[in-house]
Amino acid sequence: SKELCGGTHVTNSSTVGLVVLTNESSIGSNLRRVEMLSGIAAYEFLNKSKDSFSTAASLLSVQEEKVIDKLTNLLNSYEELTAVLKSSRKSWIDEQILTIMKESFNIGKYNVIITNLDFMNSDEAKQISNAVILNTETDLIILTNSIDGKVLIVGEADTSNDIDVSKYIQEASSKLGGGASKDKKYSVGGGPNPYDVTILNKEIINSINDDLK
Q1: pLDDT grade, residue 17 (50/70/90)?
Q2: Rounded distance, CA 100 to CA 208, Å?
């Protein structure tokens, strides 16, 4: 047997009343910290826990004893759907890379791509722009899209040339009431102001043409 002393002595265990273990952790070599609630605080904790569990059961439309099984099934389904979506988006990205490569044109000695694309976020746009830059002779690529009422612009330039892509992203973003990152070879910008992305792309092309022709 081992003696456990919590520092506060009582004449009878009934004085403590209900005890609920809330946490147990290590605080050093062979030392553990045990945290508990007792008395009224313990009852209140259990009541709140019961209410939360009942609410979860109601939201999941199951009996309380089935909550864990239901949540487990939902989490498994979520992971499966996430994997399917990820695979689907990967296929979509591969298709877009092949499609926009056909939209390249020359400005002076530079091969550029400026187009609107239905990417979901800047990460997807970066995957596309990076693949195009690495696998083709494209010197500059700028992708735009309107997402949730805001225009997002992503641009990338080949590291072997002297093009500062952030200049064009910043110019376009200022028209949208926003800003852009200042990396010369990869820049993300945009803004909340309503703007026709087709017109915006033409203005970007004109700006690039003035510099690079």
Answers
A1: confident
A2: 18
